[in-house]
Structures are given as structure tokens and as C-alpha cells.
Amino acid sequence: MAASPGAAPGGAAAAPSQSASAASEVAVPHQRQSDAGSSSTSVAPTKSANSKRTRRISAAAALTVRPARIQVPVPPPAPANPVTVYHRSPPDPTMAVLGGLPLAPAIFFGCLGEINRQIAQSSIHSLRPGTNTSPRRDPPRISPTLPPTSSAPGAVLLSSFLLVNYLLPRMRAALNMESSENPTFQSRLHPPTFRSGLLQEMSDSHTNARAHTSQIPTKLSQPEPKRKTLAERAGEHPKAQMSTATHGTGIPRLNSIKGQSIANLNANTHATAPSRPIHTKFSKSVGGGMRAAPQPPRAPTSMGFSRSTSTRSRANTRTSRPQTAVGYHDAEEEVIEISQHKGWDVDGRLSEFESQFEKMKEAFEGTMKDRKTLEDAIDLAKARTNDLEREKQRLLDQNTQLHNQLEAQRQEIYSLQQEKQSMLLEFEREQQRHKFDLEDKVRNHRHELDEVRRQFKAEVDQMNREHREALEALERQHRAQLADEQAQKARELTELRARLGAEQQDMNLELLRKEREIQELRSHIEALKSDLDREQALRTTLQQQVAEMSTTNLALEDRMRALRAKIEFLESDSKQQSDAFAQMENRLQEALRVAEEARQKLIKEETERRVLFNKYQELKGNIRVMCRVRPVLDPSEGEEAKISFPDTKTSTQIDVTGPEERSSLGTVTRKVIPFEFDRVFDPSVKNEEIFGEISQLVQSALDGYNVCIFCYGQTGSGKTYTMSSPDGMIPRATHMIYDTITKLREKSWSYTLEGSFVEVYNEELHDLLAENTNNGVPRKKLEIRHDEVRKQTTVLNCRTVALDSPEKVEAMLKQAQANRSVAATKANERSSRSHSVFILRMVGENSATGERCEGTLNLVDLAGSERLKHSQAEGDRMKETQSINKSLACLGDVIEALGKGSPHVPYRNSKLTHLLQYSLGGNSKTLMFVMVSPLEAHLKETITSLRFATKVHNTHIGTAKSTKKLKSVDRSSD
Length: 974
Ligand SMILES: Nc1ncnc2c1ncn2[C@@H]1O[C@H](COP(=O)(O)OP(=O)(O)OP(=O)(O)O)[C@@H](O)[C@H]1O
What we know:
Layout: H1 3-40, H2 51-63, H3 93-98, H4 103-127, H5 153-181, H6 185-189, H7 196-213, H8 230-236, H9 238-246, H10 251-256, H11 282-292, H12 303-342, H13 346-548, H14 553-620, E1 623-629, E2 643-644, E3 653-662, E4 668-676, E5 679-681, H15 687-702, E6 706-713, H16 719-724, H17 729-746, E7 749-761, E8 764-767, E9 783-787, E10 792-796, E11 801-802, H18 806-819, E12 822-823, E13 831-832, E14 835-846, E15 851-861, H19 868-871, H20 876-900, H21 911-915, H22 917-920, E16 924-932, H23 939-953, E17 965-966, H24 967-973
Helix pairs in contact: 1-2, 1-12, 2-7, 2-12, 4-5, 4-11, 4-13, 5-13, 7-11, 8-12, 13-14, 15-17, 17-18
This protein binds adenosine-5'-triphosphate (ATP).
The site of adenosine-5'-triphosphate (ATP) has 17 residues, from helix 16 and strand 13.
């Protein structure tokens, strides 16, 4: 729609340009044709001539293209004579006849040609209005049947008039005069040619032509024609061309004259009409008429159109030339013939002219008919043109209206687009503003939300803080109240306890007193009853006597008075007894008070005793070594070793005379080896005295210490006798413990005893208290567990017996002795090949002071320490001996490590030391009995054992600590 308004102007503007383009395209061959013409004619057009002139020359040359068959002598140029132009072709006979007036026939035929051209152009434009774009493709043609001068009726009439009234008389006169006076007339008349192109040249610019004639060579070489001449071509196809031009109702002619605008038909009224020379001056019309045939399309409107029509002119020249050439050719031949053979025959020539005139007249009449036809066609075309013009105008108006409407629509669309654009801009601004508002609102909302969140969080924090503070305050308050209540309750409980104790004590005392009173009263009542019974019996007797002696009242009354006096006496004695009872009660209360004071003092003294006793034990050392030498049981045992006990006061030294040593001189000597221990018992010492030494350790166990007493020595040295015999340390210790805990009950101490008996055999633990019959179920393996906190050792899967009586201890020892592994060796038939450990765990609590203590007494009967070589053990016995020696060596290593204060003590190197870990360490008291055989045969083993005991004796393990704790502390810790 937008392009359509501009399409019309563009299209309109394109037409001229297209015409110009066509004209430019045509100009090239035109120039080429001109060149060809210049090469074939003697007239050499100058390069300085303008294009118009060039076209004219070309058109003229096109008409003269034909081979020169006759060489005509060329006279010298005559500048004063405009017809002295040299041509190759023979001179036109007419011109030769005309002599100095050669323009008459040319004007005549020129006018005819011009008229014919205009008619053709008018026909073309009338028949094809607006289709002026194909003149080049279909150039207008001139009918070959018509001479070029027969197209314009006015011109023909004028030509006829001039020919009859003017030219012919002059021609006759001239011919007569020349023929009689000037013999060279022929030569002077010869050059003019009866050719339209030459006449055109002469009429338009004969001055220039004369100027150029001097430059024209006198003789030109003519190239061989590349095609047939126009005359030849005209002679070959005259009928065909004529039929083409005249056949039908003039349609071919219409086709041949297309391209002529309607405006050219009104050339007299057209603004550009003056530019056409044919309508202005005769001379120019002659020239134009001479050019009419080859230049019909010279448009008066524009140069481009003129160029385009010049193309048609060129084409028309090709088609119309044969006719022109034919006519001219005949005339030329005749003139040549006349000039060469006959000479000048004026009458003949006039007759010929007349005959030709007649022919031309006939042709003119035919032309007039054709003109009539053409005029009818022109009228029809004009009407059609007018209709078309009106239609065109209407369409133009409609187009203008539509264009206006379109423009209005465009304006409206443009305004709508502007409005839309403005609305879009407004919408975008509004949207942007809304977006900004929305972002502001969102931002504000976010800020408000953040503020609310902060406030809410602050409030929540504040509430939490207040709530937490309130909770803490409430908790503190409750704790304080609870503490107060607890303290109050504790005080009340204490008071209640004290009160209850006091009341209970008072009640007990009162109960005892009441019991005693009741007992006394009962006895008194019994006495009184007996007295009463006796008195009653006596009274009965007396009554009987009264009855008997009723007779004797006086005597009986006296006796009755005496009895009454006696009763009164008895009543007074009961009162005295009551007073005595009260006095006794007072004394009892006093005695109880004194006894309580004594008991409290005793408890206090017991605590002090334990402290002092522990200090005493510490001063004596936590590991003590005592030596006991058994007596010779029977002289048959062998020679007695020389063992002496030099220190009789302290009994801490033993001298052993070593084996004989033979010196290098052969003397045999025996060294006395002195050994010193904490106590040395000679063979005479009994178990009772030995227990007196270890009873302190047993007391330490009761006080809450871990105590380990083990016997070390070779086989048969009396270990089992000392430890597990019926009066050995274990029974005595248990008896002592029972006696002690019984006494401690008065001091508010109560104990529970548990005992277990295990055996270490070949580095394996065995329960000696396990039942012999286990119903085939294999016994579980014993495992050692240590309590790092309580410093206590327990053996899993080991039977523990509650020892609540001495009888149970005896039964336990019997069972253990029965279960102990015993194997016969060569050294001792009943030698124990295992370590037996009796574990007595004691837990005591003092109800008065709240004290609690937990101690363990370990009584260990070690296996024999004899050497392998000496024992001569083999097989399983050797393995047993190796295990025994290993465990004993580990025991020595542990004691040595404890004495050195080594950070690592190798308890786990043997089952024995692992089991006795907390009984050999810092929180323990250890006593080792080194048992010595009195026999000389056992001297080396005796010395070895004594040396090992000395090594242990020289070890200071450290300070033992009691596990005794306050009961209250335990409760708090729990
Ligand atoms: N002081 C003593 N008074 C009387 N007899 C004793 C004394 N010491 C040991 N005997 C007796 O000596 C013998 C061997 O004693 P015992 O069995 O106690 O030795 P042992 O070192 O335990 O041997 P083993 O290592 O094989 O058990 C026993 O018959 C025992 O009665």
C-alpha cells in the first residue's frame, strides 16, 4: 500500500528513462551504420558534426548504400553551387534535367515522404495509445508500393502544383538554354543525385556540405558489398513487401506506424510543433520531407522519443529503401543512358515526367483512398483514444481518489501508529512506574517484614530471656526451697533419729527397768502369795485353832492381835523395799550412762588404734619377709643343716652354714651365710606364735587393706603346714577375723565375709571350691577382672562362699585341700605342684560412724621352688616345674619392679602375679614367709630361697592406703 502511490510516478518516470535507454541502445548501431555508410560513400562526415547531423548523414548514407557500378567523372567542386556535391552513384536524370534547380523533385518527394511519415505516426498513436515502447522492435514501414512522396496529400498537391506551374517550365527553359549554349551543362548537372539523403544534406546544411566538399576525395575505393543492394532486394520482393504493406484493411500499416502519439496528429497545436521543420518553413519541410521516410519517429516531445524513433527511422530506411532505390535506380539508369547514349531529349523527358506524373497521380489517388481509410481509422482511433483518455482520466481520478484515500488511510494508520506508539510508551512508562512502585512496595514490605521479624525475634528473645530468667529464678527458688526442705528434713530426720534413738534407748532402758520391776514385782508377788498362802494357811490354821480354841477366846484374841501386829509390820517392810528399788534404778541409769560414755570412748579409741596401727604397719614396711625353719620331723630325713639364729632378742637373723668348699690348698671350709629378715622363726616356734606376727596384717585386712601373705620355699619346707594346716594361718586368720568382727559389733561395726579358693596350675586358674560332680558339664574357664576404682580383683566363674561361721571356713579348707592338684615327685611324694590362693574378702560397715571398709586377705601357698636339675622332673612334671619356676621368677620381678618404682610392673607375665596385682602393689601389705628345710640335703635350695627372700626384703614397696571410707561419702559418691 505504501509503495503504490509512488509506483505511478516511478512508472511514469521510468518511461522516459526507458526510452532514453532504448535511444542510447539504438544510437550505437546508428553510429555503426553511420560508420558503414562513411566507408561506402564518398562523403566523409566530419567528426566535429553534431549527433543530429550525424544521424542525417547516416540516414542519407543508408539510402545510398549500393555498389557503384559506374564511374562518373567528377567535376571540380563548385562552392557557390549548393548541388555540387559529389556522389559515387550516377547523377539523377531529373537533377540533370533540372540543372541549377534540382530541389524541385526533392521537395516534391520530400513533402510526400514527410506527409506519409506523419500519417503513419498518427495512425500508430491513434491505434496504440500509450504503447509507445516498441517502436524499435516494430518500426513503422512505408509501403513499398507507394512512393515516398505519396503519403501527404497536401504536400503532393503542393508538389504537383510546383511541378506543373513552376518547375516544369523552368526545367524546359533551362534545358533548352543549356542545350543550346553550354555544352558542359551535362557535366555541371551531373553531380546532383536524386536521393533523399543527399537532398537532406543539402537542404539542412548545404553551407557545411559545401565546406566539406572540398575535403571529399575525388575517388573513393568501394568495398565489396556484403549484402545485396536495396535495389536488388527491392527487385526480389516487391510483391511480397507490397502485399505486406497493403494487404488487408490496413492493419499491417497500422503495425508499421505504431509508436506515434496522438499528440503528433495535432502537430499544429502542439507546443513542440514549431520544432518540426516540416510545418514551419518550406525549405525545412523539404529537408524534413526528404528525411521523412527514414526519420518518421522524430518526436516533438522529447529527445529520448526522438532517438527511439530514429531507430525506427533506421529500420524504416532498410524497408523503404528498395522502393526508393527502385524508383531512383530506374531514373539513374535512364539518366545514365541518356547522358551516355542519347543525350538530352527535353520532350522525351517531359513526357516521361508527365507519364511519371500520371503514375504519381494515380498513386496519389490510391494514397488518398488509403488516406481516407486511414483517416477513418484515425477517427475511430481518436474516438477510441478519447474513450480511453476519459477512461484513463477516470481511472486517474479514481486512482487519485484511491491514492488520497490511501494517503488518508496511511495518515490514519500513521496517526494510529503514533497513537499506538505513544500508548505503548505510556504503557511502558506506566508499567515501569508500576514496576518501580511494586519494587518499592516489595522493598518496603520486605523492610517491614524484616523489622517485624526483628521485633518478633527480639520479643521472642526477650520472652525467652525472661522466661529463662524466670525459670532460673524459679529453679533457684525451688532449689533453695528444696535445699531448705532437705536440710530441714535432714535435721528433722537427724532429730527424729536422735530422738528415736534416745527414745528407743529410753524405752529399752525403761523396758529393762520395767522388766526388772515386773520380775521383781512378780517375785515379790510370788513371795507375797506364798506369804499370803502361808498366812492363809496359818489363818486357816488359826481359824481352826480359833475354832478349836473358841473355847479359849482370850488366848486366841491375843494371838490375833499378835498376828495383826505382824501384818502391819509386813506392810511397813514393802514400802521400804519400794524405796530400795528406786534407788537401784537410779544407780542403773548412772551405770548405763557411764557405759555409753565408755563405749563412745572405745569407738574413738578404735579409730585411733586403727590409725596408729596403720602407721605402725607402714613403719614396719608394706612388704615384710619372715623366715621359718621347720623342725626335723624324723632323724631318718637326713643330716640336719647347720642353721643358727644368733639374734635371740629380735629374732631377725639366721645364719646358714653353706656347703663345703674346697680351697686350692685342699682345705675344706664351710661359710656361714647370714640372712636377716623382719622375723626369723626357729623350728621350735609354733603356728600360734607365727600367727601372732601376722595377726596384725589380718587386722589391717579388717581395717580395709589388701593383704597378701604367701609362703615361699622348696618342696617339703612346711609351706602348707604353715598356711593351711588345721592350726595354720588361714584357720587362725578366720578365727581371728570372727573374733574381731564379733568384738567390733560392740563398736557398731558389722562385717560380711566371702571366701574363694583358686589354684594356678600350669598357668591356668582352677576353682578349688568347685563341686567335683558337675554333671558332665565342662567347667567354665576362670577369668581375672580388676576394678581400677575399688582396687579389687574378682575371678569370674569362681565360686564364692559366704563365711558367716568358723565351721564353714574349715569345710572350705577341706574341700580345697581335696581338690588341689597333688603329684608325686622324687623330691616329695606329696608335693604341691600348684599355687593355691585363698581369697577372703571382708566388707565392714560402722552403723554409728557411717564408716565402710573393704579389704582382702590373700593367703597364698606357693608351689615348690626347687630347681629342675635337683628335682629331676621329666615330662609333665618338668612342664609343671617350668611353669612354677616361671611364675616364681615373675613374682620376683614384680616385687623388684615395685621396689624400684618402675613405671611398668610386669603383673601380666604370669597368672599368679596378675591375680595378686592389687595385693602386691601400693595399696597392699605383703608378707612373705620363706620356708626353710632344716635338712642338709636341702641346703642349696635353702640358700637359694633365702637369697630370693633377702632380695624381696630389701624392696620397699611404698605406703599402703586403706580403702576405708565414710559411709556418707560413699552415699554422696553414689
Ligand atoms: N613346723 C612344723 N612342725 C611340725 N611339722 C612340720 C612343720 N613344718 C612342716 N612340718 C611337716 O613337714 C611335712 C612337710 O610339710 P609341708 O607339706 O607343709 O611342706 P610343703 O612345703 O607344703 O611341701 P609342698 O610344697 O609339697 O606342699 C609335713 O608332714 C608337715 O606336717
